[in-house]
Specification:
With 465 residues, the protein is mostly helical. The chain has 18 helices and eight strands. The strands form four sheets. It has a two-stranded antiparallel sheet with strand order 1-2. Strands 3-4 form a two-stranded antiparallel ribbon. The protein is elongated and about 100 Å long.
Amino acid sequence: MSETQFRTEKDSLGEVKVPADAWYGAQTARAVSNFPISGRLPDVDFVKAHVLIKRAAAVANNQPNWLGDAETKAIVDACDKILAGEYLEQFVVDRFQAGAGTSHNMNSNEVIANLANVALGGTCGVYKPINPNDHVNMGQSTNDTIPTAIRLTALAKLPRLIGAVNAMADEFARLGVQEQDTVKSGRTHLQDAVPTTIGREFNAYAWTLRRAAKGLEACRDPLCELGLGGSAAGTGLNTSPDYANKVAAELARLTGEKIRAADDLVAQMQSQHDIQRMASAINDLTLEVTRISNDIRLLASGPRTGIGEVLLPPVQPGSSIMPGKVNPVMFEMLNQVGFQVLGQCQAIGYMTQAGQLELNVMMPAMGSALFDAMDWMTNAMNAATEKNLKGIKVDRERCAEFLHSSVALATLLNTEIGYMKAAEVAKTSEKSGRPVREIVAEQGLMDGDAFDALVLRAAKEGKID
């Protein structure tokens, strides 16, 4: 840019060149120069959450000797424009920045102040009558607004993540009902085991996912307890009368969540326990999703030389050299995302313990890791459900073939003919390769139909009468 494409602003360190068309100001421009790290701009939900705090703070500060009606309205109107999706491109500080998130806090303050001043007839970059620090940031600090914004962002993303988990669970449950009578060989230690049904396998996946969704939901209420109003060190310095309760009540009204001021604002600034708890719930979910995804890939392996009990719908060619090859790409993707998410959750754990004295300065990266984990899992689970799980088919003939070739069926004979005789049948089946059903019928131990009924009963009910 030429010199004419910049304006000159001042902050406490001196003059700064700011792009002439920018709605942000000097401190944001310094941060853009200082932190060319990841090339990733702030999460949009986080931007809006932080602006929501500025809006609620203006309402809470609208009281005698604090923030006047005209200033309050100008700030609120500016915030509403951003919350409606305007000016989001003006939030330009890299996710990896100064500890605690001061740069992002000032990015919000400067954009809101400039929008408010221009609306009042002022000039962008001339902070009158609205000042970024004195008015937009009134009664606030980076130290209490950024952790609050992380909480509000997590609350905004949480329904989407839980929705994705439940959608996958619903699909497994649907398949569980559809295949409740599809008997197959169970497998333990990756070896043949007693019979079960595809329905039981899939219902178990659904139950596990729904349990994980409950674990996520349990994080909601702790996230609603804010340290906002603690100001710089949790003491409430420079805050207006009853500010902590007023701003919490306004955020509760705006979000529909049970937002409230924490009993100990200092503790909420020192500790990021609630963020770690959220990360732990995501970690738990991800471990289960990764396990289930591995199972689906095993069950779909083949089509000729693998297990092949389930057939996944093809979504793209699987090989650049092998014609006709189709791979379980959606569940491969889900695994890859899962491993990345586990890494983000691990990073959150490290950053949680890195808090020192009155503040945890790792919050920008902590928030980014949490937002990635939530978004990635949401998007990956939705994609796998929509693109693959909804079109999955079960090869019932393949299931029956494996079932009747399994020596493990001899286990069902324990209560009928005794363990020793059942072991002899198993050995005969193993050596000859003949099905257990055929051997017991041939030896007059049980007719074929009775054996089939025994297998079905054991698979569906886990009982042998």
